[in-house]
Amino acid sequence: MDPIKPAKVVKDALEKAVEKVADLATPPIPGAPGSAPPPLEEPTGPKPAPPRKADQGSPETRTATGARTGADADVREQQGEYLTTSTGARLHDTDHSLRAGRRGPTLLQDHHLREKITHFDHERIPERVVHARGAGAHGVFVGYGNATNVCKAAFLDEGVTTPVFVRFSTVLGSRGSADTVRDTRGFATKFYTSEGTFDLVGNNIPVFFIQDGIKFPDIIHAAKPHPDREIPQAQSAHDTFWDFVSLHTEATHHVLWNMSDRGIPRSYRMMEGFGVHSFRLVNAEGGTALAKFHWKPKLGVHSLTWEEAQMIGGVDPDFHRRDLYDAIEAGAFPQWELGIQVFPDTPEQTFEGIDLLDSTKIVPEELAPVQPIGVLTLNRNPTNFFAETEQVAFHLGNLVPGIDVTDDPLFQTRLFSYLDTQLSRLGGPNFNQIPINRPHVPVNDMFRDGFHQHAVHRGVAPYKPNTLDGGCPFFAGADTGALVEVPQPVAESVKERRAHVTVDDHFSQARLFYRSMTPVEREHIVRAFTFELGKCYEQAVKERELRVLANVDADLCAKVAQGLGLPAPEPTEVPADVTPSPALSQLGGEWPADGRMIGIVVDADDPDGLADLHALRQSISAAGMVPLLIAARGGTLADGLVAQRTFLTARSVEFDALLVASAPAPAPDALPQRDAKAGAPSLTVDPRVVLMLQEVYRHAKAVVAWGTGPTALAEAGLVPGEPGVVVTETAAQALEQLQGLLPAHRVWERFPASAV
Q: Compositional bias (Pro residues) at which positions (predicted)?
């Protein structure tokens, strides 16, 4: 089979699909709750419902059977200027129930009360068992056209622009959990293609805990909160999880990924995505190949530090959602390239000795390079979270011609499970008629009736064959775009329950992953294992997992055992001889700084520190980043400069870097009884600024100061000249220095890895 030829990015198609923020003279700060600033007093006169915000979109207006209506998206939004019942009767009051006299009982006659309360009682649907907490956005995918020799799917053709909806999520927690917990993340993409809907439902980790889908309830039950107390929420640092994975050692590879920095991504925008399974691709001539899908973020793959993740969980549990929505609103549209690893479709379905049907294994990119085949851009936020993000329904069986499944037993079970889940979660079989799920092609499925049926079907013969409806609908052939399964031989064998994998190897790829990390990343893995196992109650669980780690890597096991105060056991298997894969490390490259949050510490009483801030903020915005002024108080500081954060409301974890224009003296509210962050009193610099600088330093972020700012650095114990701690003469020089530091994301050389 010919190799995929490189192709240029289809710039014209992408530029048409992406709106750029043009006005940088007064850069907007994302996060405004409404489409217009509210008045001080409550409005009394009737007015139309406010429009959507400029960054928001909605599902296309399609009928339940996929036809384009031509109507604007606002036809689904609230209509009219007056409050009404659900049937349109105008209401004069919704604050008081209908009662028998002023102090009498409420009347059963109050139909508005009953309607209002009944709807409220039922406005929640069952949340997803996994991936309950999510965030979504609309966008477009543009094909490069260089995949046609292996896949005939039309949306991959050169310049084809396909609408998409993407949902990111955590796996373990409920909808009320925090974004920054250590967990696997979902990365699910719904392509509204010209040949039907294609769902690529993957994760930010390329392997899974299990090889066979029959074990899925077990791993989820083990990882979820303990059933007696329903705690801990959204965490794996507890006994049932480690009890399971220490016994079920095929989970070891995924556990290593989860304990690495991949388990706490910096944002969804800086998160890699994987299809996990091997898919079978088909080209126009009927030739087949096996492939794995990869999403490569244009901003690089970056993570939080563990302390940051813990702090953010309390300070801003919606951190990842807010980051995604604010970036899109600010015009810093997140982008990923879709790539594929391609393998020959051999009867063994292996590559370089790696079983391609084993979802606990990867193929290192050094053996099979990831070849980019298109680019995804997210450019619209949802208009309504429930209607879109919460009701979107993904299914691995949503395929298009050119993409087929394989016999991976985890894949096979997911083909059943996702469809079955929607039936209970979305109330019946018609969930694909919900606007966010509607395909963008004609639908004639012969399905009838059921809960929430929106289509009004005509005809009398929803069956095949028929003559009463003229034989309609008719079958399509492969030459008319039919989705035809690839005929594959099935090995002659007996029905039995046994592992499908060719080699019972649970440790070599976990060792490969650990050995591929830089020393800094290995330190983080050691810390994660030590923390998680240290939270377990049962000593036997800790000791058993140490035996697993001994078979992965002696250095890893020894360091974790030291932290737990336990002896390091000897391995029971000879450690595999592995060749590290540099592609698995997040560090060592440089990436764009688009959408980074830059905090600027200022002092309203320091005119020199405020002098160049207009130009500085404009330059930061022009570079695709978001500047946020931090001062002792909110509101206008001077000359139209507005503080977006105060020392009371700001916390270091919100920012990717700090610029320090001044050394503000302690503000009147710098009192421990008013703000615990004030801590010990300081005679020269507000203690909350000192704390912020110390946290930023601990988290390996860049700090640049000028003017009186170096005084604040000194108060915090930061020494200019240390990695990532810079002092300049002017604000312009400060930004120049910062732009030189940000591409590496963090200043890890500030903290050399331990030798012990």
A: 27-51
Q: In which residue are the tokens 């329904």 written? A: 393
d(CA 660, CA 709) in angstroms, rounded, equals 5
203: annotated active-site residue: yes
Cβ–Cβ < 8 Å for 158, 143 = yes
Compute the distance between CA of residue 657 and CA of residue 698 in angstroms, rounded to an integer.
12
Residue partners of 746: CB distance under 8 A and separation at least 6:
302, 699, 700, 701
Nearest-angstrom CA–CA distance, 753 and 694: 20
| Nearest partner of 147 among 11, 13, 6, judged by Cα | 6
pLDDT at 3: 45
Tell me the residue type at 685. Answer: V
pTM across the whole model: 0.91
Q: Which residues of 539-577 are buried (b: 16+ CB within 10 A; e: fewer)?
A: eebbbbbbbbbbbbbeebbbbbbeebeeebbebeeeeee
Query: How far apart are the C-alpha atoms of 672 and 189, rounded to whole Å?
Result: 47
Helix (H, G, I), strand (E, B) or coil at 172: coil
Pairwise CA distance, residues 252 & 278, whole Å? 20
Q: How far is CA 295 from CA 175, 202, 276, 359, in A?
A: 25, 10, 11, 17
For residue 379, indicate whether it is catalytic: no
Residue 258 CA from chain centroid, whole number: 15
Measured CA to CA, the distance from residue 587 to residue 745 in angstroms comes to 9
Q: What is the pLDDT of residue 118?
A: 81
Q: Can the peptide bond before residue 401 be classed as cis, meaning omega within 30 degrees of 0?
A: no
Q: Which two tokens stand for residue 146?
A: 């260089």
- As to burial, measured by CB atoms within 10 angstroms (0-12 exposed, 13-18 middle, 19+ buried), residue 230 is exposed
222/219 Cα distance (integer angstroms): 5
**Cα–Cα dist 645/5, whole Å:** 50
How much is the pLDDT for 577?
94
Report how far residue 412's alpha carbon sits from residue 277's, in angstroms, rounded to the nearest whole number: 10
Sign of CA dihedral 687, 692, 694, 695: positive
146, 203, 258, 283: the catalytic one is 203
Q: Cβ distance 90 to 84 under 8 Å?
A: yes
pLDDT of residue 103: 78
CA dist list (Å): 509 to 252, 279, 363, 500, 575: 9, 21, 10, 18, 11
Task: Give the integer Cα–Cα distance in Å for 420 and 577.
Answer: 43
The stretches in the chain having pLDDT less than 50 are 1-10, 13-14, 16-24
Give the span between the Cα atoms of 273 and 256, in whole angstroms: 17
- How far apart are alpha carbons 238 and 468 in whole angstroms? 62
- CA distances in angstroms from 273 to 189, 255, 566, listed in the order given: 10, 17, 36
Neighbours of 535 (CB within 10 A): 15
Q: Give me 38's structure tokens.
A: 């509210």
Go through the chain and tell me how many residues it has.
Answer: 756
For residue 187, the cross-strand partners are: 168, 202
Q: Are strands 196-203 and 185-193 parallel, antiparallel or unpaired?
A: antiparallel
> Cα angle at 348 between 345 and 352, to 5 degrees?
80
State the amino acid at position 504 in one-letter form: D
Chain Cα centroid distance, residue 320: 7
If we measure between CA atoms, which residue out of 316, 203, 336, 197 comes closest to residue 262? 203
Position 26 scores a pLDDT of 57
The label of the residue with tokens 């979820």 reads 224
The pLDDT of residue 4: 47
What's 678's DSSP letter?
A: G
282 within 8 A of 274, measured Cβ to Cβ: no
